[in-house]
Design brief:
The structure is a single chain. The chain is an alpha+beta fold and 417 residues long. The chain contains 14 helices and 14 strands. The strands form three sheets. Strands 4, 5, 6, 7, 8 and 9 form a six-stranded mixed β-sheet that branches. It has a five-stranded mixed β-sheet with strand order 11-12-10-14-13, covered by helices on one side. Strands 1-3-2 form a three-stranded antiparallel β-sheet. The protein starts with 10 loop residues before the first helix and ends with a strand.
């Protein structure tokens, strides 16, 4: 599973949240504007006679200008069409418990939800109490686009059903990112590796696997806290297919070949292996092994409350991922890229869409089109190495060299889909 492989989503997930008809309407409107321009004389139709009368140098220069304008038009149409985004879809949607549906409860809930969002977007466990953040917490309504109250039922330790009132807040992506940047907080992209958790519990009565269909307070808190931290965590179904491939011994023994093979079913980029053991005194000991490609990160915990171990484990996973993937620099810098293998307007549009969608990029401008190469200037807080690692993870661009005396910060080749 080397590296953080890009996730593959089902077709119905690719269009979730995209207004397809709006995209088509914009594209049609652009096309009508161009047609009206030709009919009213605002745009001149090319004539063969005029073209023949130009010198070879003029023809080359004019064709370059025409090609650039055609590419620009096609990019506008591409940008207006429905796109696909492999992101954590619920990242900007936060749910918090509230006491009632009063305005005061809503404001307090919105403040708590904004703190959760800042934790998700920055990767930090604790958000520093600085002026920009405190001001935002006083006016959380500036950062969300909608909210609603809803009730849910939970079963407590005694088996009693408890009804809870929750507030769901939908935050605005642009406003939230502007706040993150104004506060100088790290930025952790919404496109995140999916983690599958294989967990075995030894409660003195024997070892057993726990998963999505096996009730466990350990996994309940692990899943809930992972969501609070913005980690896309998957629990195995432990159905017949899983049980034929993975047994308690494989998880306890951390058999990498077995667990990585079984994890492919869930489209996982990262594997978390957990072992929980009840000690004689009644406390619990857990150890966690996080597999990040070829890298392994270990973590051990001891506590009397098994549920608390799940929250600690989620923090361990989120911290490990954010330490490696979040961009912590607070200063924007200019970087120049040369991207080759741009052979069609579709490639050109896909490149600009990709770069503009990156949370760590503040500005994108095209400097030059030459053959199948595009020169691009970026304003970003990321270092060159961070960008290259991101491009490799997303499998959109590969390093290449155009010449020995390069004036670019990076030379890349676009990977066509």
């Amino acid at each position: 599973m080397g590296g953080f492989a890009r996730r593959r989503y089902a077709p119905h997930q690719l269009v979730a949240g995209v207004d397809v008809y709006a995209g088509i309407a914009v594209a049609q409107a652009l096309a009508q504007c161009v047609l009206r321009g030709f009919s009213t004389g605002q745009f001149t139709r090319p004539r063969l006679a005029n073209w023949v009368n130009f010198s070879a140098g003029d023809r080359t220069e004019r064709w370059a200008a025409v090609r650039k304008h055609l590419l620009t038009l096609c990019v506008c149409l591409c940008l207006a069409s429905p796109g696909t985004a492999e992101t954590v879809s619920w990242l900007y949607e936060v749910e918090v418990p509230v006491s009632d549906q009063s305005r005061q409860a809503r404001e307090e809930g919105a403040r708590a939800a904004l703190l959760v969002l800042l934790t998700r977007l920055s990767g930090l466990r604790e958000i520093p109490e600085q002026e920009v953040v405190l001001e935002a917490l006083e006016h959380p309504d500036r950062y969300y686009s909608g909210f609603r109250f809803f009730e849910t039922e939970q079963v407590d330790d005694d088996g009693e059903v408890i009804e809870s009132l929750l507030l769901r807040v939908q935050f605005d992506r642009g406003a939230a990112l502007r706040l993150i940047k104004a506060a100088g907080l790290p930025i952790w992209r919404a496109d995140r590796p999916r983690v599958v958790a294989w967990v075995v519990v030894d409660d003195l009565g024997g070892r057993r696997l726990v998963g999505a269909n096996e009730p466990s307070e350990l996994l309940e808190t692990l899943s809930a806290h992972a969501r609070q931290r913005g980690v896309p965590l998957v629990l195995p179904l432990l159905d017949l297919e899983d049980r034929m491939a993975v047994g308690p011994g494989a998880v306890w023994g951390r058999l990498r070949a077995v667990l990585e093979g079984a994890s492919r079913r869930y489209g996982a980029d990262v594997v978390l292996v957990g072992r929980a053991e009840r000690l004689i005194g009644g406390s619990w000991a857990t150890d966690w092994d996080l597999w990040l490609g070829d890298e392994r990160v270990l973590h051990q915990l001891t506590d009397y409350q098994l549920a608390a171990m799940g929250a600690h484990a989620a923090d361990f996973v989120a911290d490990a991922l954010a330490d490696r993937l979040a961009v912590a620099s607070t200063e924007a810098r200019g970087l120049s890229l040369a991207v080759g293998n741009i052979g069609t307007p579709s490639d050109y549009g896909a490149l600009l869409r990709y770069l503009n969608a990156l949370e760590i990029v503040d500005g994108v401008s095209v400097d030059r089109l030459q053959g199948n190469r595009v020169d691009v200037s970026l304003t970003t807080r990321a270092e060159v190495d961070q960008l290259l690692a991101m491009f490799e993870t997303d499998r959109v661009m590969a390093p290449m060299t155009f010449g020995p005396l390069s004036r670019y910060d990076a030379e890349l080749s676009w990977v066509r889909r």
